[in-house]
Design goal:
The complex is a heterodimer of chains A (about 625) and B (about 80). Chain A is α/β, with parallel strands linked by helices. Chain A is about 40% helix and about 20% strand. In chain A, the strands form three sheets. In chain A, strands 11, 12, 13, 14, 15, 16, 17, 18 and 19 form a nine-stranded mixed sheet that branches. A five-stranded parallel sheet of chain A has the order 2-1-3-4-5. In chain A, strands 8-7-6-9-10 form a five-stranded parallel sheet. The longest helix of chain A is centred in the first third of the chain and has 22 residues. Classes of the chains: A alpha/beta (about 625), B mainly alpha (about 80).
């Protein structure tokens, strides 16, 4: 982000975009727009990106999001930047900026405020000088900072509680930024509770609120300010005249930070990244230069490739699956991967490996199948423009990240990429790569064992079914959001929704955990049974794809049916709602004795089935050890 | 008309307003372009600051209400 050099820097790329608009596929042009935004985000680029993106046809948005912004200051000039930062990743934002300074009413007021269905996400954009002026301007003699802290945290807490009663929307609240010049100067740090300490105390209180409320997240605004520089953030002249406090550079940093939080909140994320080797993980071509001739190390241009590897391992630690797809001789590539002293990534880090001379589109398809994820959850990193273009054309759902120049320590396209952000990591996220490695061993065993039943028995699968507790809520909500294949109804629920169910007498939320001799899968299944109409009805039933085909679903259904029978219900109702992806679940209900109901009272497209509990007796498959626990959900 | 500065200013203004630069001319103003409201005016100012690396005061705003006058103000702020 150099100043005043925008024209010199971006003119060639802008020209290339203009030419591409008429000549290339829309995804190629969008790739160039993403590169332009990444290289020089700001108000000027935002206008260019939005007007050009509008001319692209045939791009299917990943997601269209309704966003409301409640705010204490003028954010309108940031909106084009926010929309540009999202559109280059195929996310359309439908933004409503609420009234100036009315953030409290927007959240508190059930009539005039943000309605239950008005927004998928709400940003509460605050700054210290508006909500805690005592901590920003010069102090008054009787200032009691403890009271200021209590007041701010209590106010925000009341706003969140009131809003949560009518909406399950995600909420992103700005934490406060530290004052540029504390009243006491250097002595602020030594005072019992100086202004900076008071801001930090408020922020700790806000983080506590986020833990108490579901789907509430805190934006570390001070960190974003600090990244740009406190002295370069504010425009006091525009603040005075128009209540607009941000300089252009600050707007870009804020818009990008918002996007990095919005994407993971909404589940807009890549689950796997498929990487090339030559000129991507290292400089040069190993087949030509040999294992000792490639560029990789701690100094010079080899350091950039090492930095890129470090970033990939960071992604892996967030639960993003790493896979390799390279046109190479396997021996050459493995020699570097296994033995090169400067490699950070080693063969065991990859959840899937395709080092061959096949078409990369075919390889990526087969990687997605092996990892059991959709192509829309796959990102592809390659330096070769032809390979990138092939994937854009053949697999338009895949996110192509073109390494258009060698990576450097401070600049490469994975840094701050919003598709790889995670808000919170579950134990499952942290272990995901390991679990896939275990699954590969499982498949190898499958190949070595004769019959399927023998194989399943040899796994020693243990399934534990219990009622969900508060600590299960984030993972349960995550599974309803992310599970597409084995999912009877594909109903998506927020953490707030699940919490309401736990509190209801009429709803039981079951979770299933599975383990086998290769490892612990964690919480992999959810079933929600509602008794609102008297007869128990399966509202949701889903299973993570990594345990499909092993009878775990039968075990879970057995527990539900037994519970219903114990409660003296004669029938159990199950629904199947077909989606583009849930074919694996299509025969689940009929296979277990459910009969399609003639009852047309349900929604169109909702296939209601009934299981006669007085007749049917379900049993878990013999190869599964089923444990039920009577943990209460209250 | 061949002044490259004019073209850059026109591009910035057109991008903010979501119009084509060929639809704008020297006398274009909030009176002639529907999308040019007060927030668009603010957005034009910050986009110009970003594009040219200049600082524009809120007091400059009233004298920047046509394309021609915007070019004049930007030119006066650029280093000679």
């Amino acid at each position: 982000m150099t100043e005043a050099t925008g024209d010199a820097d971006t003119a060639p790329l802008r020209s290339a975009i203009e030419a591409s608009l008429d000549a290339d596929g829309a995804l190629s042009t969008l790739g160039l727009l993403e590169r332009l935004w990444r290289g020089r985000p700001g108000p000027s680029t935002a206008g260019f990106v939005l007007t050009r993106a509008q001319r692209l046809t045939g791009i299917v948005p990943r997601r269209t999001v309704k966003l409301a912004i409640a705010r204490s200051f003028t954010v309108e000039p940031v909106i084009p930047l926010l929309r540009a930062a999202a559109v280059v990743h195929r996310v359309e934002l439908d933004v409503v900026v609420r009234g100036f300074g009315t953030y409290a009413q927007d959240l508190l007021d059930p009539v005039g405020g943000i309605g239950g269905d008005d927004a998928d996400v709400v940003i509460v954009a605050l700054q210290t000088r508006d909500v805690a002026p005592e901590l920003w301007a010069s102090m008054s003699d009787d200032a009691d900072y403890r009271r200021v802290c209590d007041r701010v945290v209590t106010e925000v807490g009341a706003m969140l509680s009131a809003f949560r009663k009518r909406s399950g929307a995600h909420v992103l609240v700005h934490a406060l930024e530290e004052p540029v010049r504390p009243a006491l100067g250097g002595a602020d740090a030594h005072d019992e509770l100086g202004q900076v300490d008071a801001v930090r105390a408020i922020n700790a209180g806000l983080r506590e609120l986020a833990r108490e409320h579901s789907a509430v997240h805190i934006l570390d605004y001070d960190r974003i300010v600090a990244d740009v520089g406190r002295s370069r953030w504010y425009d006091e002249a525009k603040w005075g005249a128009m209540r607009m406090s941000l300089r252009p550079e600050a707007m870009a940093a804020l818009a990008n930070a918002w996007v990095r939080h919005l994407f993971p909140m909404l589940g807009v994320s890549a689950k796997a990244i498929v990487v090339d080797l030559d000129n991507t993980l290292w400089g040069g071509v190993v087949g030509e230069a040999g294992p000792t001739g490639i560029l990789l190390g701690e100094t010079g241009s080899g350091a950039g490739f090492r930095a890129l590897q470090r970033s990939l391992l960071d992604l892996r630690s967030r639960g993003v699956l790493l896979a390799v797809c390279s046109k190479n001789n396997l021996d050459d590539a493995m020699q570097v991967l296994s033995d090169h002293p400067s490699m950070l990534i080693r063969p065991h880090h990859f959840a899937a490996t395709r080092i061959n001379w096949d078409n990369k589109a075919d390889n990526i398809r087969s990687i997605a199948a092996e990892l059991n994820i959709g192509l829309d959850a796959v990102a592809f990193l390659d330096d070769n423009p032809a390979e990138c273009e092939l994937i854009r054309q053949e697999l338009p759902a895949v996110t192509v990240i073109e390494l258009d120049r060698p990576p450097t320590v401070g600049a490469h396209p994975l840094l701050d990429h919003p598709l790889f952000e995670r808000l919170a990591l579950s134990a499952e996220d942290r272990r995901r790569n390991e679990m896939y490695a275990e699954q590969r061993e499982r498949k190898e065993l499958e190949a070595s064992v004769g019959s399927l039943d023998d194989y399943l028995a040899s796994l020693g699968t243990v399934v534990e079914v219990s009622l969900a507790t508060v600590s299960d809520v984030p993972r349960v909500a995550q599974l309803t959001q992310k599970t597409n294949q084995f999912n009877l109804t594909t109903r998506r629920y927020t953490e707030a929704d699940i919490e309401q169910m736990l509190a209801s007498e009429d709803v039981s939320v079951y979770c299933a955990r599975a383990a086998d001799r290769f490892g612990d899968h964690g919480l992999i299944g959810v079933a929600i049974v509602s008794r609102r109409t008297g007869t128990p009805e399966i509202d949701s039933f889903l299973l993570s794809c990594r345990v499909i085909g092993r009878g775990v679903e039968t075990a879970v259904l057995t527990v539900i049916a037994e519970d219903c029978r114990a409660a003296e219900s004669a029938q159990l109702i199950g629904c199947f709602i077909p989606s583009a992806k849930n074919a694996p679940a299509v025969s689940f209900l009929p296979d277990h004795g459910f009969v399609l109901s003639a009852d047309e009272s349900g929604l169109e497209n909702e296939h209601r089935h009934v299981l006669d509990l007085t007749e049917a007796r379900l049993t878990a498959p013999p190869w599964i050890t089923l444990r039920t626990s009577s943990r209460s959900n209250r | 008309v061949n002044d490259p500065l004019i073209h850059r200013v026109m591009d910035v203004v057109a991008n903010v307003l979501g119009t084509d630069p060929s639809d704008l001319h020297a006398a274009s103003s909030p009176d002639t372009v529907e999308a040019w409201d007060s927030f668009a005016q603010l957005n034009i100012m910050v986009a110009l600051e970003d594009e040219f690396g200049v600082v524009l005061d809120p007091e400059d705003s009233p004298s920047m209400l046509t394309v021609a006058s915007i070019v004049d103000v930007v030119r006066s702020r650029l280093p000679q």
